[in-house]
Amino acid sequence: MKTELYDSILSRCEGAVYVFDADVLRERTAKIRAAMPENVSLCYAVKANTFIIKELIGSVDRFEICSPGEERICERLGVPSEMMVISGVYKTPSVIEKTVADKGFAGTFTVESLRQFEQLCEYSQKYGSNIRVLLRLTNDSQFGINEEDIEDIISRRAEYGNVEISGIQFFSGTQKTSVKKLRREIEKLDAFLARLSEEYCYVAKELEYGTGFPVSYYEGEDFDEDAYFAAFAEMLTGMNTKAHITLEIGRSIAASCGKYFTHIVDTKCNKGQ
Fold first, then answer.
1. CB contact set of 153 (below 8 Å; sequence gap of 6+)
2. Measured distance CA(235)–CA(112) in Å, rounded
3. 88: left (phi > 0), else alpha (psi -120 to 50), else beta?
4. Which of 32, 75, 88, 201 has the fewest CB atoms nearer than 10 Å to its CB?
5. What is the predicted pLDDT for the residue at 176?
6. Rg, the chain, Cα only
7. Crossing angle, helix 22-35 and helix 225-237, to 10 degrees?
8. In angstroms, rounded to a whole number, what is the distance separating the alpha carbons of residues 105 and 228?
9. What's the pLDDT tens digit per position in 147-180?
10. What pTM, to 2 d.p., does this model score?
């Protein structure tokens, strides 16, 4: 049946075309959710594929947005602001001010740098807006904030008035096939949250973790996803933190449901190939 559908689509399209299967998409999110502990939420990283956003409303808990363009797309497609996480390095002062000034915005901001944090504090005070932020912990790269800087912010959190520090965000890369690497990251995050609690009496409400789940793109790739998910879920269950865990996932959701079709316009044989 689907082959006939694809043939029908191609017959009406002169050029190449992407086809996304909404049923497969929903099955994929349901599988990931079922594989994780019950208290874990899913956040879709919009940068992975903007074409499937509308179909994911109701299947995921949040949408992670990394640019003003992605935010406008989400708005046009009816994503409620409470489901938006405004993330990424590309948050200019004007973008931050516009979003903070919008009293109807009920989403979350991730804080990528000390300068971003200062701007969020400044504009929240200027417009009397109560905002919620996640402090992005660096993975020893150019992204995020150092542990000591996060500790300094947490130690002075009473000074920030309109800014609620909801918790920590952490993302360390994509296509992570090593369960051992995930274990090291989880142990590191668990220990850091414990230190914030013990030394600063700060109990994080949320940990947003970009897992970087791998995707098999080519036939013959050997990857036992079920065993991988089971091991990861066991790690989450073993954490000492009481913070609510949100998994930020992009390609692991998007890659399952799309196909790319194009017409063959010519065939030939050169040197036996």
1. 117, 135, 145, 165
2. 26
3. left
4. 201
5. 85
6. 21
7. 40
8. 37
9. 999 999 999 999 998 999 999 999 988 888 889 9
10. 0.90
